[in-house]
Amino acid sequence: MTIKHVTLSLLLALLTFGCQPDPAPPISDTAPATPPVKKDAKPVPKFDRDSAYAYVEQQVNFGPRVVNTEAHRQTRAWLVEKLNEFGAEVIEQEFVAKAFDGTQLQSTNIIARYAPELQDRILLAAHWDTRPWADSELEDDPSAVVNGADDGASGVGVLLEVARQLGLNTPDIGVDIVLLDAEDYGKSDGGSRNSYALGAQHYSKNIIQPKPRFGILLDMVGARDARFAVEGYSERYAPDVVRKVWRLADGMGYGSYFVNERGNAITDDHYYLNTMGGIPTIDIINLPNASDSPFPDHWHTGNDNMDVIDKRTLRAAGQVVLATVFREAAGTL
């Protein structure tokens, strides 16, 4: 996840969306049009939270997945291997990104495509790299190691389990799972928002056709008692997707996670998927605090380890994403 800091320009957006919890629900009572219900639609498979947890843990066991490190290279090979094992058409989108400090980042977006022959497609994304520095104001030790169990690995772990299920139960819709690289190597204090999400920026300029109809980004979706408020840019650029997903989550009994409140507008990978890629994309992200620092306390600290991960949260995020895909394919979302 990027620093997702709130710059002066971003404050204007926050005022628009409301950085304080808004008693008025952001989800409209008018549902968007849905496609015709398809006959013989496949049922939504059960998301295995233990499997997702194991995928998160394996990433953390590699060590911090900082670009240009051995742990990063090992993780890339493992992710490609797993996605191939799960029956996807895997594309390694390699690129060299120049970081804010001049570092040449040897980066790879890993793209797993299911039913690549289908024109109607959904994008599911998460970033797989980790923050090189523990630069949160809550971290007293600047040498602390950021393991990125939640900030990076949780979203990837959920999508790996989604990929496994898609390999077993492919719905009648195309799915592109994109694991984005070089997201968290940005400048925090006084830096440009564009120093973050370098993988998303590259992907948005090089989208494999056909372009997905809409997208869902997962970022920090593993901590206990997570609070997925409606993120500001999601509401601005993809309001119909927000309505569908939050209503579905509530109907499935996950309303305590997918809270019907406005959250901050966050510069995350989805910002570029929306503005540069033209894919209406929402961000499912833990925003427990309605403030200028809306993120959980373990964000960008040495405490972002497996101790913060809760299988129930992984299941909530993963089951809702799976249901979104299968019900969209069935025409019942």
Write the layout of secondary structure elements.
Elements: H1 8-17, H2 49-62, H3 70-85, E1 89-98, E2 104-114, E3 121-127, H4 149-168, E4 174-180, H5 198-205, E5 214-219, H6 232-237, H7 239-251, H8 269-275, E6 281-285, H9 311-330
Parallel strand pairs: 3-4, 3-5, 5-6
Antiparallel strand pairs: 1-2, 2-4
Helix pairs in contact: 2-4, 2-9, 4-9, 5-8, 7-9
Q: What key attributes describe this structure?
A:
alpha/beta, globular, 6 strands, Aminopeptidase, six-stranded mixed sheet, 333 residues
Q: How much helix is in the residues?
A: 25-40%
Tell me, what is the CATH class?
Answer: Alpha Beta
DSSP, total strands: 6
In the CATH hierarchy, the third-tier topology is known as Aminopeptidase
Mean pLDDT over all positions: 90
| Silhouette | globular
Protein name: Peptidase M28 domain-containing protein
Pfam families: Peptidase_M28
Keywords: Acyltransferase, Signal, Transferase
Signal peptide: 1-24
Q: Could you provide a short overview of the structure?
A:
Residues 109-324 form the Peptidase M28 domain. With 333 residues, the chain is of the alpha/beta class.
Q: How would you sum up this structure, described in words?
A:
With 333 residues, the chain is α/β, with parallel strands linked by helices. The chain has a single domain, classed as Zn peptidases (Aminopeptidase). 34% of the residues lie in helices and 14% in strands. The chain is built from nine helices and six strands. It has helices spanning 8-17, 49-62, 70-85, 149-168, 198-205, 232-237, 239-251, 269-275, 311-330; strands spanning 89-98, 104-114, 121-127, 174-180, 214-219, 281-285. Mean pLDDT is 90; it is low at 3-34.
